[in-house]
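Calcium channel flower
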Amino acid sequence: MSLTDKLTMLMARPGGDNAQKDDVPWWMRYAGRGLGTVGGFIAIVLGLFNCISIVVLNVTCLIAGIWQMLAGFILIVCEAPCCCFFIDYVQTLSDKVETRPYWNKAALYIGLAVPPFFMCFLSLSTWFGSGLIFATGIVYLAMALGKKGSIDDMRTSAANLEAGAGGPTSAPRANLVTNEQPISFTGVPGR
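Predicted structure tokens:
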């Protein structure tokens, strides 16, 4: 396979969207992809700054920096495989991740972003680098939640809740326990 064939294959990737992604606005998909790409590069650079903290013998920040660099690389592999076209398996891995639901990608990115915070909490490069990975996970989590209802649906739902037609738990005076008894005062206990 020639270099031009590889490049055209990598650039043709965004056209393979599945039916699940039709309800997500186009700008949100590009925001997730753009934030993931830029955030991955920034996380790699800032993870390198965390690795420099070995000079002051801070081993946990070194481990956090290595973790952050690996998380940034995984983010770039999943979101922008054209940046890593020299690695053969990147396209197949990216295609597998692309077919997964949005909540899987959100869980992956949030799970990759959290450990450096616990290892090197006071480092600003950890907060910003892993924070961008975490923000990418939040964008994908918002995409997994989907669109909110139309204004007519929300008005109908609010009217049903006001009227008490929303079921027994949505009425304003609903009890948590159906057999709840009122509290009564029986007097002062004897000695």
